[in-house]
Amino acid sequence: GNVKIYDNGKFQAGDSNDLQIYHDGSNSYVANTTGTLLLQSSSTATVKGTTVQFENAAGTEVLLKAVQDGAVELYHNNVKKLDTGADRVNVAGHIFITDGSRLYISNGFGNGHANIRNEAANTAGNMVFNTRTAGGSDTSRAMFTTDGHFIPYANDTYDLGSSSQRWRNIYTNDLQLSNEGKTNDVD
């Protein structure tokens, strides 16, 4: 039969009432006060429950699914939007990073990494490329401006190519050069 516990009454388990299940008149709670709250599927010899799944009340939409030895999946309106793989995270749709946050790309060693950020100085969306040496701080190197220009972040500081790593061809409608205070070799 059913056991009825009225609003604000609690089902409690554990020596110190570590697990509490109750309804306060507005919301329902499963509260864990000690250790970790674990939701586990059955895995007996005859029943192989290898998935924990959250659905809407009608059971017609998946919200979240965690598969043993497999993916963790997030859904929006019953459509899978994110899932994990052995070596990646798969996203269906867009990734939207807000509040001037950065997209970090790590090489897996220490804290040496690169990142891409939105220049938050104004309401425009300049895309800035940064690098960081291990133990160092971020250094802005180049930027795509909102009007489509690709510019170095600091004047007269960075090269495009090197003496041993050259760009093959440069195609341009106009070439403007300034060598004030410098000498150039052209062959």
Structure, explained:
By secondary structure, this protein is mainly β. Helices cover 0% and strands 36% of the residues. The chain is built from no helices and 13 strands. The protein has strands at residues 10-13, 19-23, 28-32, 51-55, 62-67, 72-76, 79-85, 88-91, 102-106, 113-118, 127-132, 139-144, 150-152. The strands form three sheets. The protein has a five-stranded antiparallel β-sheet with strand order 4-5-6-7-8, with no helix packed on it. A five-stranded antiparallel β-sheet has the order 9-10-11-12-13, with no helix packed on it. It is elongated, with a radius of gyration of 28 Å. The termini are far apart. The mean pLDDT is 83.
Low-confidence stretches: none
For the terminal residues, how far apart are their CA atoms? 94 Å
The major beta sheet can be summarized as:
5 strands, antiparallel
Read across the widest sheet, the strand sequence of neighbours is 4-5-6-7-8
- The beta-strand count equals 13
Q: How many H/I helices?
A: 0
Q: What is the rounded Rg?
A: 28 Å
**Integer average pLDDT:** 83
Q: Rough shape? A: elongated
Strand content: 35-45%
Instruction: Give the % helix.
Output: under 10%
- Following the backbone from N to C, one meets helices and strands in this order, namely EEEEEEEEEEEEE
SS-based class: mainly beta
Question: Notable features of this structure?
Answer:
single chain, 187 residues, mainly beta, 5-stranded antiparallel sheet, 0% helix, elongated
List the helices and strands and how they pair.
Blueprint: E1 10-13, E2 19-23, E3 28-32, E4 51-55, E5 62-67, E6 72-76, E7 79-85, E8 88-91, E9 102-106, E10 113-118, E11 127-132, E12 139-144, E13 150-152
Antiparallel strand pairs: 1-2, 2-3, 4-5, 5-6, 6-7, 7-8, 9-10, 10-11, 11-12, 12-13
